[in-house]
Prior knowledge:
This protein is of the alpha+beta class. Helix content is 15%, strand content 31%. The protein has 4 helices and 11 strands. It has a 4-stranded antiparallel β-sheet. Strands 9-10-11 form a 3-stranded mixed β-sheet, with helices on both faces. 24% of the residues are buried.
Amino acid sequence: MTEAGMITSNPLDGERLPGTVGYPLPKVEVRVTGVQGKSVDISEVGMLELRGPNVFQGYWRKPEKTKEEFSTDGFFVSGDLATMAADGRVSIVGRQKDLVISGGLNIYPKEIEEQLNRLEGIMDSAVIGVPHPDLGEALVAVIVGSMNNVPNQDAVIASLKNVLAGFKVPRRVIQVDELPRNAMGKVQKNILREHYRDTLN
Length: 201
C-alpha cells in the first residue's frame, strides 16, 4: 500500500490460507469498521483501517484530503473492504469504490473476477457495475481472451452459474484486447464504467 507500505504478512512457518493477506505486522493496528467507524463482527465485511509507525502522516499540501482519509482517532481509512477472522487474520474483499449494489444486494467484483480468470481461454478480467433500469446497477464482465479457445458470452455465463449465486453472474460479457491500466498497473475501472455505462439501457 502506497500510504503505509507493508501492513500484513502470512506466517513464514505456519498455515497459509488462500485468499488471505495474513496477520498485521508488529506495531501495526488494523481494524475493520462499518457504519460510523464502529468495528464490525468477526468475518463481516467492512472498511479496513490501520494505524502505526509505517503509515504516512498525510498528503502533501492537501490538508482537507488528509482529514477525509483519517478517522478522528488517527486510523488511516484505506478504501479496501476486508474481513477479519477471530484469530486476527485479514482477507481483502475488494475496493469500496468498486462495490456494486444491484437490486439492493452488495456484490464484490473481486470474487467474480477470480472465477473468470480460472476459466480456460480467459487471461484477464474486470467486472464493473453499470446503470440498469430496474436494479440500479447490474454486472458487466470485460474479459481479455487468450489466442485460442476464447469462450463466448453464453459459455462464460453458464460456467459462472455453476459456481456463483445467480445475482453475481454478469448480464453481459465483453471481450477486449487489453484492459486499461494506470502507471501502477491497476485496472482503471472508472474508464470501463464510463465506456460501457449504456450497455444495459
